[in-house]
## 1
Amino acid sequence: MQHSPVSIAFDGVGQVFTGNDGKPIQALADLSFSIRHHEFVSVLGPSGCGKSTLLRLTAGLILPSSGAVSVFGLTVTEPRDDVGIVFQSPTLLPWYNVLDNVTFPMRHKYGRVLAEDVARAQALLALVGLKDFAQKRVGELSGGMQQRVGIARALLLDPDILLMDEPFSALDALTRDEMSFELLRIWHERPKTVLFITHSIPEALLLSDRILVMSARPGRIAEEIVLPFERPRTMATLSDPRFTALANHIRHTLFHKPEAA
Amino acid sequence: MAESNRPLARLLFWLDRLTPALAFVVLLVVWEFSTRLFAIPSFLLPAPSRIVGDAFQVDAGIWLGHIQSTLRVALIGYAVSILIGIPLAIGLAKSRFLSRTLYPMLVVVQSTPIVAVAPIIVVTLGSGDMPRVVITFLITFFPIVVSTTTGLMATPPELIELSRSLRAGAFREVMQIRLPYALPYIFSALKISTTLAVIGAVVAEFVAAEKGLGFYIAFSTSFFKIPQAFAGLVCLVAISLILFRAVGYIQKRFVPWSLPKTER
């Protein structure tokens, strides 16, 4: 892993928005980090620390006010084909069934869905555990199942990079735990570089190779934590004493450092 | 216990379902008997039986001619409203320039009482279906434009980001995401507009026409044939209701997901 090429790099990135009162708001300040190929990195922080901005910068949906974001060594100037996004809410299209939602990126980007796309979508549905739900209306699915469809949709164009914006935050606690392990399994079968935005400390600890802990306004990296847990992660990881210790440490960083600064 | 209650429960169930119809029947009965009891002259308030009786004295072909004329104007005006209103709404939703320039004008048009403009339109556009269709269009198109625009703007921002991340282009964004998302809004406007279309056609026929139910009502009234005017009114209500239900049926049949879960 040490010698893997860099997938995503932020170099002195700052982001300024104009607020509702017309005054500039510094969302991110001088952010620099890089993510290696097939690394799973979580960005953890309180609401309003600019985590989602960071994801949208990587996706090319917005451009930085200063500094540069690059993907595979190339500066991001617009959305790229090799980046897939899983949003906070599943944002499926209620007029399509599950299969048509998964093939939607093809229909939307190229205006047609070929037989091979359907076959790929069916394989992805099997991967996310929804093999028998292809013909169901999305309204019939539970929240967790809908987000599985969202993951399958993001994987359809076989992106090298998967951006996930608090994908499980709208789910109930039990489904959320289940989906974390499901995501680990999917990631194991389809290795990707993952940038995972979350405000859940256990979720970040369980999933990631590395955690970037952010502080609020302007968003900065308060601490970088490389996780010691071996893979595959299991239920046992959750009861590892180091897991609890790290969780406490991160809580301390999040709640005490801003006051000291 | 539950077994012995069943006939009673069933009776209550049907009573509940039939309540609206029963209320309507009671109203008709009260109407019928009060006109007889108080000897109300038929040119003030004709009894329901008198309305039906007089309606059948008029030749069915004449009725059909009037109905057809009104229905044609209402439906053409309605169709034109949809064909102009929805693309206009797309323009308003996608272009700040259009919404800044056109929207105020639309509000001015909407604030103008169309009934007052109708005679002017007839003078300008002459006889024939044209002025009637224009009047109907002016009455129906505003709700369609406003609802469609609202629906297009209500699309979840994340879906728009999905579209942008795929670099699909503005056309596909509108056709594959925004417009389908706006369908529930569009259908509520389409339902309201059926009634408005009938109103538009009647207003136009009041002003200048030699055919149609609006003309027939105005004509009958001027000869004090009030029961026949009432019969014309009943036809108009029937047309409005049928058009309204037809749009509801189309929505249920072809886009059931756009209905609230309880109505599917």
## 2
Amino acid sequence: MAVSRSNPPVRRSRPKFLDLTAIRLPLAGFVSILHRVSGSLLFLALPALIGMFALSLESPAGFERAGQLIRQPMIGIPLFGLAWAYLHHFCAGIRFLLLDMHIGLDKEGARKSAVAVLVVSLLLTALLALKLLGVF
Amino acid sequence: MRTTTGAHYGLRDWIFQRITAVVMAVYTVIVVGALFFGIHDTAARWHAFFAFGPIKFLTFLFAMCLCYHAWIGIRDIWMDYVKPVWVRLTLHSLTLLALLGYAGWCLEILWRL
């Protein structure tokens, strides 16, 4: 619907319903918010992540030290939280790129891809954690 | 009055956010794939992987893309939630300066390999 400049649209009083506790967010909305949350977490953690990368490449001793650090729960658990943030951002990002290309825009498709993002990013995080800890 | 803060260049950044995302996604697949070949098994292999010319080049690209991508994303967050111009300008500046610093730091790490 085209809106001409000379005739601004009439403001209708629309019902406002912003009780956030009562709104049931669709899964796609949940993925969208998590995309932003994971992105900001990663941004905040950048100095720690770059520091860890630097340490691991500094010297063989630094590499061993980095290996010990990720095995300490106080560091390892937040680090795997960040790995989740990264992988969620990665998966949700691919979903958004597909949506940009008009792939999966229908309601059912969007819902399914949102579920896929949540599940796949958690699975990949578990896989990566097990791999880095040397379980397999 | 012109707005002091804001994007002004929406489409360009929208496109660059996506281009940088694709570069980072490709790099991620390469590195995660390499983990399954055991590049993290020993310090020597880890070092050799990142010191290998093409990987070093891609890692550098990744770091630069990450900083640009983060700049666009974090700026969007400030623009969505922070309205007072001076607070927003301050946050924008701090974000930009931090990211420039991180970019320099990454360059320094790669330079020494």
